[in-house]
């Protein structure tokens, strides 16, 4: 195996001058075989990261070699540690036409922001500006990594929003945005941050981030109107967001009435304009419009009252029931970029928030959600839908896995849900196996804690509904004991093993 002494001269030379493609490919092989200690020496003493400044990243072959080398280095070290010392090299990677290289670097910066203390997060202005440009004006299909970075920076860094909105270059870029679509995308990022960090909303309103959003609602474009509504929905999460909209909501809705009077006002015999609009959007051939409509319905179904109000519309044959056909079709196409959003919306529709002592009053709601879940794979058995969600939870794509686990947790809030869990062969074994997420954390932290929360929810539902609704037998005694044991062993299934090791070492 080649060690550091044998390759030190090559690293030093490539850190100071341009090499051949073969040299970079050989270096990649060498780096893969170095120990962490040797790799650290190569980075700190031999200036390994400087090689990126001498590579022609506009050339596809060289940029591919750069990506391979970067994946070795930054799977070992946190990229955020080098954001200042190697600003030029990182900026060159971020502006590269090699999208996998660019997205890899931005994703590693995002991981650093999420997993570092605030004092360790110091991203240069040039990098923040370039990532902001990618997030706002790039094609939405290639801008997800940059959007995720800005959201993480605004949420995880205590002063992230202040940094973004008080930097002259970045603020000037935001002010220069003229496209309605780009304005909506910008405000969506900040609305998402505000929904998670309500203390940042004041800074956003002082910089008038959302002012242009209300004006855009007047455009005669259904997709834009839906996207604006989605952003406004995020603002309603916090009291300051609701107060902000109260000053403007009459103008907002009067604009909608002006542009779409028939759809908005309905007619004297059927005054349900929102249902008409959503039904129309669910039948759209544009997946973006359909996804927004499904999300809007999901938001309304979060509460028990919301589920009751929409029961007539979502029943089989109801005007909004195509939601389940559309969602079921998307679930069969795991490559769809809208799949995670639809899975999250379904989790809102299915989730049972228990906020009252008399559980028998909730049985009709449980029957509703069970019927809705069954429509996802109608006319097939509903367990087929659970099997498909299980398949999605094992996908290599983190966003899909995360959204699938969220939906499974919502299903676990239902007595019929855990009954179905027990009926699907192998499913409970999957939930109770703490190793299924091992090796899947290359794109960030492991989702094993999310899977463990499903087990915890199963136990809560079992205890809550035991003996209440005979139609759903829940878990038998053996499975109940296995679930309790799984919870006792902890997220990683190691509590007892660690205790035994500790006792042996005493």
Automatic annotation (TrEMBL):
Pfam families linked to this entry: Proteasom_PSMB
Organism, as annotated: Rodentolepis nana (Dwarf tapeworm)
Record family assignment: Belongs to the proteasome subunit S5B/HSM3 family.
Cellular-component GO terms for this entry: cytosol
Domain of life: Eukaryota
Official protein name in the record: 26S proteasome non-ATPase regulatory subunit 5
GO biological process, one term: proteasome assembly
Signal peptide annotation: none
UniProt xrefs under InterPro entries: ARM-like (IPR011989), ARM-type_fold (IPR016024), PSMD5 (IPR019538)
């Amino acid at each position: 195996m080649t060690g550091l002494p044998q390759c030190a001269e090559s690293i030093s030379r490539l850190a100071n001058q341009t090499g051949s493609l073969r040299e970079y490919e050989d270096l990649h092989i060498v780096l893969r075989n170095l120990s962490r200690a040797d790799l650290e020496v190569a980075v700190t003493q031999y200036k390994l990261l400087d090689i990126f400044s001498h590579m022609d990243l506009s050339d596809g072959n060289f940029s591919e070699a750069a990506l391979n080398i970067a994946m070795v280095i930054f799977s070992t070290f946190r990229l955020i540690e080098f954001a200042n010392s190697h600003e030029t090299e990182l900026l060159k990677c971020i502006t590269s036409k090699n999208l996998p290289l660019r997205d890899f670097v931005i994703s590693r910066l995002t991981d650093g922001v999420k997993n570092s203390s605030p004092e360790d997060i110091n991203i240069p202005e040039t990098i923040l500006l370039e990532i902001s440009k990618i997030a706002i004006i790039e094609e939405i299909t290639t801008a997800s990594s940059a959007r995720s970075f800005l959201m993480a920076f605004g949420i995880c860094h205590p002063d992230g929003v202040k940094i973004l909105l008080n930097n002259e270059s970045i603020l000037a870029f935001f002010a220069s945005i003229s496209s309605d679509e780009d304005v909506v995308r910008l405000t969506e990022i900040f609305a998402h941050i505000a929904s998670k960090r309500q203390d940042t909303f004041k800074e956003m309103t002082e910089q008038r981030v959302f002012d242009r959003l209300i004006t855009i609602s007047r455009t005669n474009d259904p997709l834009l109107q839906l996207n604006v509504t989605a952003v406004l929905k995020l603002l309603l999460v916090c009291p300051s967001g609701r107060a902000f909209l109260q000053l403007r909501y009459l103008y907002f809705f009067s604009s909608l009435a002006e542009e779409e009077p028939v759809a908005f006002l309905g007619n004297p015999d059927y005054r349900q304009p929102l249902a008409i609009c959503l039904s129309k959007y669910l039948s759209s051939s544009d997946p973006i419009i359909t996804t927004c409509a499904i999300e809007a319905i999901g938001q309304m179904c979060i509460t028990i009252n919301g589920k009751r109000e929409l029961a007539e519309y979502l029943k089989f044959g109801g005007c909004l029931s195509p939601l389940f056909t559309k969602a079921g079709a998307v679930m069969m196409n795991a490559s769809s970029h809208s799949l995670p959003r639809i899975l999250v919306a379904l989790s809102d529709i299915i989730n049972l928030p228990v906020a009252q002592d008399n559980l028998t009053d909730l049985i009709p709601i449980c029957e509703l959600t069970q019927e809705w879940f069954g429509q996802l794979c109608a006319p097939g058995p509903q367990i087929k839908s659970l099997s498909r969600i299980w398949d999605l939870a094992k996908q290599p794509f983190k966003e899909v896995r995360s959204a699938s686990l969220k939906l499974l947790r919502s299903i676990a809030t239902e007595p019929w849900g855990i009954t179905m869990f027990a009926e699907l062969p192998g499913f409970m074994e999957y939930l109770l196996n703490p190793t299924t997420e091992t090796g899947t954390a290359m794109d960030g932290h492991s989702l094993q804690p999310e899977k463990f929360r499903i087990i915890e929810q199963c136990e809560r539902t079992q205890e809550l509904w035991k003996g209440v609704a005979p139609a759903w037998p829940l878990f038998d005694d053996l499975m109940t004991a296995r679930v309790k044991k799984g919870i006792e062993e902890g997220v990683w299934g190691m509590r007892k093993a660690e205790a035994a090791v500790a006792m042996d070492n005493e």
